[in-house]
Amino acid sequence: xxxxxxxxxxxxxxxxxxxxxxxxxxxxxxxxxxxxxxxxxxxxxxxxxxxxxxxxxxxxxxxxxxxxxxxxxxxxxxxxxxxxxxxxxxxxxxxxxxxxxxxxxxxxxxxxxxxxxxxxxxxxxxxxxxxxxxxxxxxxxxxxxxxxxxxxxxxxxxxxxxxxxxxxxxxxxxxxxxxxxxxxxxxxxxxxxxxxxxxxxxxxxxxxxxxxxxxxxxxxxxxxxxxxxxxxxxxxxxxxxxxxxxxxxxxxxxxxxxxxxxxxxxxxxxxxxxxxxxxxxxxxxxxxxxxxxxxxxxxxxxxxxx
Length: 306
Ligand SMILES: C[S@@+](CC[C@H](N)C(=O)[O-])C[C@H]1O[C@@H](n2cnc3c(N)ncnc32)[C@H](O)[C@@H]1O
Prior knowledge:
This protein is an alpha/beta fold. The chain has helices at 57-70, 90-96, 123-130, 154-162, 179-185, 200-209, 249-262, 280-286; strands spanning 8-11, 26-27, 46-52, 71-82, 102-106, 109-115, 133-135, 140-142, 168-173, 190-197, 215-219, 232-237, 242-243, 246-247, 263-274, 292-296, 299-305. The strands form four sheets. The chain has a seven-stranded mixed beta sheet. α1 crosses α3 and α4 (154-162) packs parallel to α5. The chain binds S-adenosylmethionine (SAM). S-adenosylmethionine binds at residues 147-148, 153, 156, 174-176, 179-180, 196-199, 202, 221-222, 238, 240.
């Protein structure tokens, strides 16, 4: 007879007063650098799991399906989501897997509780729908949930058209699937490139998309990369402006500050951003020259020199 599991898990950071997380629970979110992979948990290996569900439908069903696969029959699954970010659909989604659901509401979240049934329906299909895949149209490995996972971001496409005179050692901060990095590595004078992203799925996809000995892929928060200050000749980026679903202008400014810290004197930051984002003053504070190289289609491109 196998021993019942004592392993508890958590996916994301559900607010304490929304859903309880077991003490010592293992973190499985791909957005937490260093977290374990839910995909690697053996079938029935978890005694309980609390999930702050992601907003994208395919991604959310994938995470719930992976959770139900990993839970032992009878083990408790708690799933929470903001009402307007998938919460209102949670109950139906769990019922479609064959769960009997208790539902509650707190602080704009829906919280669904269900014991893992003996038999779960539709697991394989939901896992296949949300799994990593090669997108032939994009020519890239990708996965639902990753930023711009099924199309090239127009801002990044604009930046690629304007990148010039790159060379030496550089970084792509918030590299995603590696679209900008591919363009950078097409320049022979580039000696090395570190791709940094805090999304493990993006990092794994980028690792498959980029086959170049000059590239290194790093699963890390941009604030904790270990890149030596003043060591880089260039940084490219299309910084995020959402954190946990809400617009966060400071996150982009943090990316700019981190880039400035990594660059040597005379090093260059190539940046694309949505027009409405307030990056000019932080660029002006940290860089000697900050000319705008494009302003079109709702995006602006800067070449900022330290
Ligand atoms: C606007 S996307 C750009 C992606 C890619 N460079 C492109 O052009 O398609 C920003 C990226 O930053 C990543 N990101 C968000 N917060 C981060 C953080 N704190 N540290 C590192 N990467 C982060 C996201 O996962 C996302 O891939």
